[in-house]
Amino acid sequence: MVFPIGCGIGARMDPPSFRWPRYVWFIPAALIVIGTVLNILSPRDYWGDYQLGAAVVLAGALLSLRHTIAAGAALVLVELALLVKDGYFGHAAGTYSLINALFTALVGIGVNRVIARHGRRLEAVRSVAEAAQRAVLPAPPAGVGPLAIAAVYKTAQIEALIGGDAYAVQDTPYGTRLLIADVRGKGLGAVGTVSVLLGAFREAADRAPDLVALAERMERALVREASSREEDVRVEGFVTAVFAEITAGAERVRLLNCGHPSPYLLEGDTVSSLDPGEPSLPLGMSSLGVPRAAPKDWPFPTGGTLLLVTDGVTEARDRSGTFYDPASRLAGRGPFQKPDEVVQVLVRDVERWTGGPRDDDMAILAITRCG
User: Fold this and answer.
1) Which pLDDT score is estimated for 250?
2) Cα distances (angstroms) measured from residue 356 to each of 316, 318, 329
3) How buried is residue 239: exposed, middle or buried, by Cβ count under 10 Å (0-12/13-18/19+)?
4) Nearest-angstrom CA–CA distance, 257 and 194
5) What's this model's pTM, rounded to 2 decimal places?
6) Upstream peptide bond of 335 is cis (omega within 30 degrees of 0)
7) Separation CA 217–CA 201 (nearest Å)
């Protein structure tokens, strides 16, 4: 699910529905032609009936009802013409052959109706999933003051819309606060944790006086949520996260890293990793009693872009097993005028890098200081 947002202009792009390649439409027609030619050339038996039958069933599975009926009609007409040509029409063998052709056409139409019914059900399920995605992970605001924002979320499985990554942006009395996080685990359990995580962020971002206090409030919310779950989830469950706070004038950005991949600052052609040095432990590990590290500050130049990613980006591998490095891959590609340019370039580059399906979800949040 992609939310490309430029400086002051926001738009939302829904994931495209699946479409068969165009060449698929010609396969049933090609089979009808091949089957007809084989039947014309065969000395006695109709060798092409298999191709004709396959054409109708394939049309029912892949094409519309109108195209399926057309394929079925073509099958019956071809069979009828051949029976008349060869003198079988009116004989028992010819009648059985014509009945088989009609039966095959009806099977193709039946297949088409069953698949269409399941398609409608899947579309309804997809609509519910999209609504849940918007509720759990709504689009960030188009901009906050001088900041323009773009975000993208891509799950590892193309059929899925919801996963264990999360991001949020909120204007607060302390400045613009941001969150990007990665929940350990997958499936509905991870989605439930994401819901708790984002709910706690929206509640605490306006009230916590600093990023450490914000992280502690979210820590307590996650501990409460985990207390009602299985023991292995309580023991092994954790959330890596980066909390960011951009001052009211957008001159500086303050970061608190809780075991998450470091953010990046893009300025012109250069890309810098905002490494915290010693990150805090991930959320959900307060039982270890380790105090959180202090946030670190960096200047946020005009025209610069703060880029936050999950490990679906930094742990994407090419065929040789090499991890993707946003700093080296994005260096020299600027300057970027809008945050959605950064997001689009990064997504395309990661897809080229992996050359196929990814193993993990990928979330990206980009914030550009426009002026």
Assistant:
1) 87
2) 10, 9, 18
3) buried
4) 18
5) 0.69
6) yes
7) 8
